[in-house]
Records
---
Amino acid sequence: MIKPNRLPGEQYAENFSDIHPPFETTDAALVEANRCLFCYDAPCMKSCPTGIDVPKFIKQIATDNIKGSAHTIFSSNIMGAGCSKVCPVEKLCEGACVYNFMEEKPISIAKLQRYSTEKAMAANWQLFTRKESNGKKVAIVGAGPAGLSCAHVLSREGIDVTIFEKESKGGGLMTYGIAAYKVTPQFCEDEVNYILGIGGIEIKYNQELGKNISLDELQKNFDAVYLGIGVGLARQLEIPGEELEGVEDAIKFIYDIRDKGFDKVAVGDKVAVIGMGMTAIDAATQAKRLGAKQVTMVYRRTEMEKPCTQVELDIAKLDGCEIIWLAAPKEIIGENNKVKQLVCSKMILGEPDASGRRSPVDTGETFTLDVDMVIKAAGQMPFEDLVNEIKIQNSKGKISTDNNSSTNITGVFAGGDAVNGGKEVVDAVQAGKDGAASILSYLGIKN
Amino acid sequence: MADISSNFLGIKSPNPFWLASAPPTDKKINVLRAFEAGWGGVVWKTLGSQVKNVSSRYSAVNFGGRKMMGFNNIELISDRPLNINLKEIGECLKLFPDRAMVVSLMADNDKNSWHELIKKVEDTGAHGLELNFGCPHGMTERGMGAAVGQDPEIARMVVEWVMEAAHIPVITKLTPNVHSVVPTGKAVVEAGTNALSLINTIQSITGIDLDTLVPNPYVAGKSVFGGYCGPAVKPIALKMLTTIAQDPTTSKVPVSGIGGVSTWKDAVEFLLLGASNVQVCTAAMNHGFRIVEDMCEGMNNWMDEKGFKTLDDFIGKSVEKITHWENLDINYHHIAKINPDKCIRCGLCYIACEDASHQSINMEYGKPYNTYTIKEEECVGCNLCQLVCPVNECITMVEHRVAPEYLNWIEFQKRGLPLNDH
């Protein structure tokens, strides 16, 4: 049965507490900071999409220059605080740490980054000064990581920025699309406010492109437009029974947990999650943490090809989620219009596909799981209809840009998930920086 | 098992590890704990006219997250009544007759004061005396401590007074706060001291509180120069010890080595450069007396591995390896070699060589890992890359002699060989 409020209040608090707790003491942070070798042309830095000077900011913790440390981080990544909580660092900076070659634990870069950035946010150190307004105005659509990052760079250069956000809160997927045990809604709100602290950026909430606002209007009223609209729609399974009550989109499920509160979100007794990406993990683990008795993750390839990281998979396993590899959903069977069973095809791996991974092939055999809820996390779809409507050149909904983040329409730029189809927060932050650099150049402003 | 027992001027101890004259040897309770822990001997904290100490007294230099790389103090000699110290010395001697008991002395600056003090100390049954000519703070303003040790003639005079009265071995402790320890060393040896010990602490300021702007250690808004010691001073102590071992006069007497000894390896180094035993303080103040266990075991294992049966088998063995620069072999050359299998791609060797040495390391860009190799023709063999490399035996220095025969600088000049050969 699908129902909310399965657990006592304190159990929710425990289940959704911070999965990567911060350093409890300054001493603990110092011990870790002093382990850092201060590599030259450091692999960690080169593995960060935003190129944070990791050795420098860690050294600054060790020298008791926390303000400098936070400045180093935010200079490259204005969402450095959030990224310290949500980045899959095992495949980025920490995965590249040279200690891995020594069979030593890599430096806890994320935890150290969190140490400095949390102090900066708590004390509201405004580490950047906005240049005097130069009268130029830029509109940004979407207050997610790409939009906020772009806005911050532009504001530093004296541009007046207006962000149009369709939700009632900023932060985008950081606020709405990530497991609550990684970042809390309060943190996301604080982070947005901290970024806005520089001034010169106004967010207009509940403003959706194609509904309340039009691209024409933005082009008319602003000197340039940046589209950081992200992705949103869950990929459909396109199998029978998908319309049944109890079939839910992982993005919406995660969104509701963030938006409504833990006890308000209904979850089944036996839940199947389709997919093995980061979103699938976030959905599966949170279904379990909301009180589902049994959660089964179904993925059509093997562990070798999984899109999530090992660390993420381990979280799901430790939460007691079961994993079935080489299984593709074939049909959802209902009773009284409610989910009752999930029929899966058994797969084997065939030839490599375009992604270079061996593609799954149906063996013709099937098996059936008794479930009362199916969460779809088989990838997200870009807003294809919307971008077609506003006549932006795209590839299956993904906005096409040149090397300068420019779309086919002069003065209209884009970046982040809307362009790349869905990557990490940190990739979107870098896209925002790149977009801002192109806009500055377009507007003839040197930075 | 090697024999690590020590015989210093007839003062026997089961091992060569003594605690230096300092707070850990200030009173019976500490000294008994030290003996129970296994220390071979102690030099009881300096006795003289009773003094008054201040609060606070110590400060330290931390480095790279490690505490107390260097340590300093502004404490004076014993601030306890003389008769209590003497009584406790006697009691410790009775309880641990197999351990060395040397008493540090700093009498007022007249012959009678020295004679009276020596008599009282000898009455306790102590095995030896150590003359504190080194304390660099507090006592110097009163014309004692380092004020004596810094002037060879005053030091000679005081040692002559002492030798008139002493019946037990006398060790004179030298101050490093001089351009060379040899002049005072020579003077006191000529005046009859039976042995030397060095170094005492080095005048220092360890740091400043960046909020109050008051240097450390803090005493009601002020500070004074303190005596510096601990691991940071070891290289200076070893150099000074070597100059004593090289001088024909001072090398005649045994030396007790002091200055940053923290491990058995440090102790072995002091002995190799001519010390007959070592005195330890900061390491014990940092970690407690238990450190002596590994000091004994480590030295013993090393001696077994090297085939040394007694301490005398290796005392002074490295002295002859220190020469004058002009005697060094100019034809010796070695070149760094990076083992690619061990390299962790941290780039520390590259940036050190590039920014601070001879641009002899090649960097091949990679994302995220660069590859580093030595430009053999550019490498001067300075060791910097090897020193900064965090991986053991990743960078080795491989011998590539310029020519087979020994050639020193004097000969090089005589032959008029070219300087601009690279």
---
Amino acid sequence: MSAHRKAVTVCSCPGCTQRGAAALREALERAVVEHQLGGQFDIQDGDCGGLCGSGPVLQVPGEGVIYQGLKERDAAKIVKEHLAGGAPVERLRYTGPGAPESVPLESEHPFTKDQLFWVMRNKGLIDPELIDEYIARDGYFGLAKALTEMTPERIIEEVLASGLRGRGGAGFPTGLKWKFAAGSQSDVKYVLCNADEGDPGAFMDRSVLEADPHSVIEGMVIAARAIGARQGYIYCRTEYPLAIHRLNVAIAAAREYGLLGTDILGTGFDFDLEIYEGAGAFVCGEETALMASIEGRRGMPRPRPPFPAHQGLWKQPSILNNVETFANIAQIILNGGAWYAAVGTEKSKGTKVFALSGKIKNIGLVEVPMGTPLRKIVYEIGGGVPNKKKFKAVQLGGPSGGCVPEAQLDTVVDYEEIAKVGAIMGSGGMIVMDETTCMVDMARYFMDFIQDESCGKCTPCREGTRRMLEVLQAICAGKGEVGDIEKLEELSEVIRESSLCGLGQTGPNPVLSTLRYFRDEYEAHIGDKKCPAKRCTALLKFWVDPAVCKKCGLCCKACPSGAISWQKKEPAVIDTAKCVKCMSCFEACPHSSIF
Amino acid sequence: MPRITVNDLKAIRERTLPTLCLASCKEDVKITMHMGTCGVAAGAVPVMEALKDELATAGRTDIRVVVSACAGMCSSEPNVTVELRGQAPVVYQHMDASRMRQVFRRHVLRGEVQTAFALMRQQAFGPQGNVK
């Protein structure tokens, strides 16, 4: 080892090792030998100076040069241009972090700047398993006010004044529901929380329960005081283990403080609650089925009336509210109904939490004031559709809801306005679809879901949804016939009119709303046997149009079954005998040349 | 603990609020790990392990680690929020074990905000607890 050999270090910390430091070092050693630089450079174990997340890191300490994020192949380039040639490879150099000011503030970031955190006010800020932290953020002060300063009538008045409507999606005024239950004469009443979030694409309730379980508990105790109940249940699906765990921790802590149990806050008021874990049947989100499930019976709906406010759980007056509804209550009591009603539209007040997902850049939970245009949620908060694809529609309310196309995107978040365009507010699932989504296929998916989840009690829902699914499956398989659309419309009408519960009554909605805005897609499937979005594999030819093909060969590389032959400067050809119709080539082709 | 009264509730608030606000804590650094179902599914557990490992190596006693829930933007998870005394908390996105090590060594230990991984800066949690 001669003293004048210059050190070149490769970091061997766990971070850099994980990112391929060992392979980089070997490649470096090989390249140094190749360029006969062994006499000039000494490769050593080094340190990345903490740049573990940008590793592997290679340094030439004598020159103060740091390289980061290197691939194995970069070693040869660095040896050739830098070690042998004397010119550092600028492209790979680490030049230090940017100014902290370049990171947008939450109040300026497009995702957060137009959100209003009321229900999600504690999200990510407190430890959900520590009741003291919830109390520090004014938690249980709404309850204290309700128990010490307000009569039950006054609580209901305040909730009525707030204009709060059921956040499960139906939008029934919460205060009115409570008023009916309060007016029912009975010694035993129940407060129930619906945490049976079952819509595909909905995860608002789970997030609220995980981030701030006490806000739901506090809302329930206030509701109990308002209607005169002493026992409550939270009906939560067992697929939410973390939510259930945090709820259990929260309930235990609230009991220990006497915020649940007997003589709450020394006011003589008693209330306790339990979690009831549901097995995840979609129909159990329906109120009468949910109550049947808690009673230990099969989760099936029954006709109403009698309404739960008069005869609910165990035939006693009960109220059932959604997680998000309860999470609003303490704030309303603390700040007053007028404060709450100051935000929103004429008939929809406060905020609404949506679970934004699908073909959208920013996926996540979005809480916006009522009256926010859907366009703003999709294009500003959500950041628009990624991969240069075109927006097609946004689906609201899951299997009971409908879709809103581009032309109606200026619709604002409001129960009535959204209903006008054929969708529903729903519990908050918001799925964005781009031009590659086939609307017939989407309707088929939701109908499949509905017929799978139909409890089977009433015939229109049990049999009707199955018939609708069969028609949709035939259309997607290229076996659609003239008259199928009319058949779907007729079935929809009958199922809507004659089903027992909300599941059946709203089940045809995805079909009706796609027929309303995308009838041409149905017609293309049936008449031309074509799927405009290129999703229904039975209607695709798996044929490369030589006139459109740019001869790039990406489809050939993507094909897992070797069905595509391609040579440079020649258009690709698909051998349909070998093709397994996996769609990999469609996704890989940047020029949409496969049909 | 016996049943609490409204006055006890106030006492708990007075006592706990300062602990939520770094400015009134004895610690100099607060690291919030966002570990809801979504964060865990995105890989928050190895991030937490890397943090524990770094903490043990650093031997600092003035760093507080808090486990919290989803920060809201699921597509940017796993998220970690780092707050240094007197500075705006920085929410980091798409964290993995090695990014966590980098954020710990460069930001927590040296005060250098790792802008390449940062999602947004928040307003510091004030002694009044008013965030927005």
